[in-house]
Amino acid sequence: MIISQENIQTLRGLVECESRNVVVLSHTNPDGDALGSSLAWAEALRKQGHRVTCIVPNHFPYYLEWMTGIDQMIIFKDDKAQRAHAAVAEAELIFCLDFHSLQRLDAPLSELIAGNTSAKRILIDHHLNPPQEFDVMFSYPEASSTSYLIYKVMEALWGAQSITASQAEVLYVGMMTDTGNFSFSHLTPDLYQSLAVLCATGIDIPQIYNNVYNSFTEGRARLFGYTINRKMKTLRKGTVAHMSLTEEEMRRFWFQQGDSEGFVNYPLTIKKMRMSAIFIEHKDFIRVSLRSRGNVDVNLFANRYFQGGGHKNAAGGKSFVSMAETIAHFERSVEEFAAEGLLA
Ligand code: 5GP
Ligand code: MN
Question: According to CATH, what is the number of the domain 5-212?
Answer without folding.
Answer: 3.90.1640.10
